[in-house]
Design brief:
Layout: H1 2-19, E1 23-24, E2 29-31, E3 37-39, E4 47-53, H2 62-71, E5 79-86, H3 95-109, E6 113-116, H4 120-124, E7 134-139, E8 144-150, H5 155-165
Parallel strand pairs: 4-5, 5-6
Antiparallel strand pairs: 1-8, 2-3, 4-7, 7-8
Amino acid sequence: MKKIFVLGFLLLASLSMQAQELKKVENLMLETLKGAPASLPMWGEKNLLIFYVDPDHANQDMDFADEMEEKHLAAGENIYGFGVMNLKDAPLIPNSLACTIANNRTKKNGATILADKGRILSTAWGLGDCNNYFVMLLISKEGELVYMHKGKHTEEDKKEFIRAIAPYR
């Protein structure tokens, strides 16, 4: 009976791994904070850690983002991190105000932040509903979506992220 249970478990695990094939995504044209067309930086050159953020919920997982920066959890010569503001899902904040606030932050920390005024990224990549979420994405150099998390990271989620990003650093 134990052998049947173990074999069943291994079969289910195998099917689960097959179902989690990496999803291929394409580079996109979004906008800079000043409204100029811009493609995703470092596409195909580095693995991309993208923070896709609804400005209404920009602080939802900021504590983990800050922890990653302080402890260099996602740092590496093969990783390039940047932000994309999901402006379509923030109707209460005027786009110009959100871009001004983000632009002021980039002056302080040198970060790259792009604007998505029409849910281009979430639609093109089939991410589902990203409204009211701080979404973290990891895209390989080959254009494969290897990690996605919506909302606040629990301690277990943080460990999963560290495991997921390790081979791409």
